[in-house]
Amino acid sequence: MERKILEMKIGLVGAGQMAQALARGWVQAGCVPGQQLVIYDPAEASLNAFKESIPDARIAAGNRQVVAESEVFILAVKPQVMQVVLNDLQGCVTGDKLAVSIAAGVPLEQLCTGLGTQRVIRVMPNTPCLVGIGASAYALADGANAEDGKLVGSLLDAVGTSACVQEQWLDAITGLSGSGPAFVYTIIEALSDGGVLMGLPRELSTAFAVQTVRGAAEMVAETKEHPAVLRDRVASPGGTTIAGLKVLESHAVPAACIAAVQAATDRSRVLAKQ
User: Fold this and answer.
1) Residue 3 pLDDT more than 50?
2) Distance of alpha carbon 24 from alpha carbon 12, whole angstroms
3) How far apart are CA 190 and CA 171, in angstroms?
4) Helices 17-28 & 44-53 angle (0-180, nearest 10)
5) Is the pLDDT of residue 4 over 60?
6) Less CB within 10 Å around the terminal CB: N or C of the chain?
7) For residues 214 and 184, is the Cβ–Cβ distance under 8 A?
8) CA-based R_g, the chain, Å
9) 85 Cα distance to chain centroid
10) 5-53 residue pLDDT tens
11) Three-state DSSP class for 70?
């Protein structure tokens, strides 16, 4: 990790689950020391949870203090309250500050107009960044330069992988990787329930469901082969796997996964208009 990131003061406007996941990931990865973080959230419970996980982080008196004391500040608030936060920050964002938003669906145009600066980057992270295997995408406003993009990419790569993309793709990425972990948790739970139905103890069944999903994902990542190719290799003629796959198809599980990504993407687009 570049030394300049280690020395950089990073502010977090909002201390909810995603802010905590990113910050804990940075600290655990040795990317950003806890004492370099300054945070504010009107919800005392969120602040207490943040301080419990990162005791060295400093609590500011308000959003404007976070910006004043930071070189990079992260807007980690819900999309529904973003405009309120932008209004609060008007007039205090100078050109030496890099603004980063992780709010789903809030476009760069709204962020730049509200903050009064074009030096803005919009990010869509996901919660697995907490365990160092997040998937994040980011898009740059016109005033953000290549070095700004490299800096944000380095922060995101410290807690997983990242890609710089066109802003128009971020809603779909929100639906896929932003909401996707919840979809996979549902699948893991269902696989575990299936094992319990067939007589396995819950703890063992969940452990095997988790490892099965982890192993299948790693197979796709390592081999670079299409998931359908790997699936067909497991599905022997007249075997157990093809019997199970028939049930998944009959219950439209693949179609449901596609529809879930579509629904989450559509919701992200709706949030952008509110």
Assistant:
1) no
2) 12
3) 27
4) 10
5) no
6) C
7) no
8) 21
9) 20
10) 667 899 999 999 889 989 988 898 888 999 999 999 999 999 999 999 9
11) coil
pLDDT at 58: 95
Question: What's the rounded Cα separation, in Å, for the pair 146 and 63?
Answer: 27
Question: What mean pLDDT do residues 122-145 have?
Answer: 93
Dist CA 123 CA 102 (whole Å): 5
* Phi-psi map region of 91: left, alpha, beta (phi>0 left; psi -120 to 50 alpha): left
- Measured CA to CA, the distance from residue 13 to residue 65 in angstroms comes to 10
Which residue is associated with the tokens 């197979």? Answer: 219
pLDDT tens across 172-195, in order?
999 999 999 999 999 999 999 999
pTM: 0.88
**In terms of C-beta density within 10 A (0-12 exposed, 13-18 middle, 19 or more buried), how is residue 20 classed?**
buried
As a 3-state breakdown, the chain gives helix, strand, coil percent values, each rounded to 5, of: 60, 15, 30
Structural domains in the chain plus CATH codes? 3-170 (3.40.50.720), 180-273 (1.10.3730.10)
- Separation between Cα atoms, residue 104 and residue 167, nearest integer Å: 12
Looking at every residue in the chain, the average pLDDT score rounds to: 93
pLDDT confidence of 243, banded at 50, 70, 90?
very high
Residue 164 CA to chain centroid, in angstroms?
14
Instruction: Compute the distance between CA of residue 12 and CA of residue 272 in angstroms, rounded to an integer.
Output: 21
* Phi, psi at 196, each rounded to 5°: -65, -40
Tell me the C-alpha distance between 28 and 86, whole Å.
Answer: 30
Q: Where are the beta strands (DSSP E) in the chain?
A: 10-13, 37-40, 58-59, 72-75, 98-101, 120-124, 134-140, 160-164
Please state, in angstroms and rounded to a whole number, the distance separating the CA atoms of residues 206 and 271.
35
Residues 6+ apart with CB under 8 A from 17: 127
